[in-house]
Specification:
It holds the Pfam family VirC1. This is Chromosome partitioning protein. It comes from Tranquillimonas alkanivorans. By secondary structure, the protein is α/β, with parallel strands linked by helices. The chain has one domain: P-loop containing nucleotide triphosphate hydrolases (Rossmann fold, 3-Layer(aba) Sandwich). It contains nine helices and six strands. Helix 1 crosses helix 9. The structure holds adenosine-5'-diphosphate and magnesium ion. The site of magnesium ion has 4 residues, from helix 1.
Length: about 220
């Protein structure tokens, strides 16, 4: 079964594209895994990143709003394991449909007041479609109490949406990798903290998706 993971947040610059490419690279690393990344953002940041790459995987596809359902059904028919959808800031109908079609929506959140304030529309969309969400703290500063404060704030505001225990720090390695058409997990500094964060985050998300697929099968009596 093709699992669909949308990366969304209404706020701009939270790290959606950085997170999308990092997760897609990690997902594609598994033996024989077929992974696509649909770039739903008219800015085409993920496509610009893909143009710098020499590796074929993950497959990055520019996706106009009206083509979303078509590409998702093609990916299912072709037997892709995972499709990521990188979305534009500001939401919109296509992002809402991506959220409706997804098994999981990953929401990057910078631990700062205006970012926390901007989460409601994304959460409203998840809730209206009954799609699972996962907050990922991103661009966390190296020092300070921001991460703990943001975790408390998220738990108070949105108690039903978990916050990933793995977070992404604000690290030059993420930015440098993007400019090379790589993910931080692929650069020469593969042992960097950024690389470890990227790998661990995908492991956590993969486990979350596997757990929910198992739960769905047992609810429907398949296993
Ligand atoms: N964890 C991070 N550490 C440092 N810089 C980051 C990180 N994540 C994203 N960035 C940088 O922040 C900017 C916005 O990130 P981007 O992924 O384009 O956000 P979005 O897609 O949500 O608009 C980019 O310049 C990107 O290189
Ligand atoms: Mg983007």
């Amino acid at each position: 079964m093709t699992r669909i993971i949308t990366v969304a947040s209404h706020k701009g610059g939270t790290g959606k594209t950085c997170l999308s490419v990092t997760l897609a690279v990690e997902a594609a690393r598994a033996n024989g895994a077929r992974v696509a990344l649909l770039d739903l953002d008219p800015q085409r940041s993920a496509c610009a990143w893909a143009e710098l790459r020499s590796e074929a995987a993950p497959l990055v596809v520019p996706c106009r709003d009206g083509d979303l359902e078509h590409y998702l059904s093609e990916a299912r028919v072709a037997g892709f394991d995972t499709v990521f959808i990188d979305t534009p800031s500001g939401g919109g109908k296509a992002t809402d449909r991506a959220i409706a079609s997804s098994d999981l929506v990953v929401i990057p959140v910078r631990p700062a007041f205006l970012d926390l304030e901007a989460l409601q529309p994304t959460v409203t969309s998840l809730r209206s479609h009954g799609t699972r969400g996962l907050f990922v703290l991103a661009q966390v500063p190296a020092r300070g109490q921001e991460e703990d404060a943001a975790r408390r704030d998220l738990a108070a505001r949105f108690p039903r949406i978990p916050v990933a225990s793995v977070r992404l720090g604000h690290r030059k390695d993420f930015e440098r990798a993007l400019g090379l058409g790589l993910s931080a997990t692929e650069t020469r500094s593969k042992r960097s903290i950024a690389a470890a964060e990227g790998r661990l985050l995908w492991e956590a998300i993969r486990a979350t998706c596997a757990g929910s697929a198992q739960a769905r099968r047992s609810v429907s009596g398949v296993s």
